[in-house]
Design goal:
This protein has one domain. It is built from 9 helices and no strands. The protein has 250 residues and is mainly alpha-helical.
């Protein structure tokens, strides 16, 4: 276990140095990138003079949708890049594809947590209360966004091991998921036929899960079992693919 911990630590340090320009400032820029993304969307809402459909601050409305969406997007996408960048390390017998995947997931989890802390701090400076009415519900929702990102990231690694072009295809998919997850609107306000169709997207339900933690009176019903099946199901499939597919093709 001690040797394995040293391998994971070395992979994490190499990951951070190669991805972030070999400096601490590069790491800071990458952590702040999703934060800037969120406040750019807030600026767009302010420019268009759009009120919050939740009845609270427009900043908080955007943050409750963008934070879980970006956690899922970055975690599921960056896992594939880890295999591409660190593939030469797999010539060493101590390093396996699973180790690279675990190291990248830990780095992404830490980076996402740091970004969330920065967003909360900025909201407090702007006079917005970032504390949800139901803290355990919010924690569970953010955890599910991370779990779904981990699961999809593991599946993506399995697919990309035999189809490298999947990296670009998945970017298109994540953009589509991001645009239709209800960041700027409440999906339950749409016609029921369209809303029922959108509910098949687990990110829609995770974002609603976060928002009812801030406003329990939104009249939203989240299918928690469906979201849990997506999270744990994709993670199990991804781990099976790592053992059966990735080890064969990489």
């Amino acid at each position: 276990m001690e040797s394995y911990a040293h391998v994971i630590r070395a992979l994490m340090l190499r990951d951070m140095r190669t991805r972030f320009g070999g400096s601490y400032w590069g790491y800071v820029v990458v952590v702040l990138w999703p934060v800037a993304h969120i406040f750019l969307m807030v600026a767009i809402m302010a420019f268009r003079n759009l009120p919050s459909p939740m009845g609270n601050s427009p900043i908080l409305f955007v943050a409750t949708g963008a934070v879980p969406a970006l956690v899922f997007q970055y975690t599921s996408r960056e896992a594939m890049k880890a295999i591409i960048v660190n593939k030469p390390l797999m010539y060493y017998p101590q390093v396996k594809a699973f180790d690279i995947m675990i190291a990248r997931f830990i780095v992404e989890t830490i980076k996402g947590f740091q970004g969330l802390i920065i967003i909360i701090f900025i909201l407090m400076l702007l006079g917005v209360n970032p504390v949800p009415e139901n803290i355990p519900t919010a924690v569970c929702a953010y955890t599910m966004a991370l779990l779904l990102g981990l699961g999809m990231g593991a599946v993506n690694i399995g697919i990309m091991s035999f189809f490298p072009g999947w990296l670009w295809g998945y970017i298109v998919i994540t953009i589509s998921i991001y645009a239709t997850s209800g960041l700027f609107f409440l999906p339950n306000m749409l016609p029921s036929e369209m809303y029922d169709l959108m509910k098949w997207n687990p990110m829609v339900q995770i974002i609603e899960w976060v928002r009812i933690a801030y406003n329990p009176n939104l009249g939203i019903e989240v299918d928690y079992f469906y979201v849990l099946v997506w999270g744990w199901g994709t993670l199990c499939i991804g781990l099976l693919m790592e053992r059966i597919v990735v080890r064969r093709f990489l």
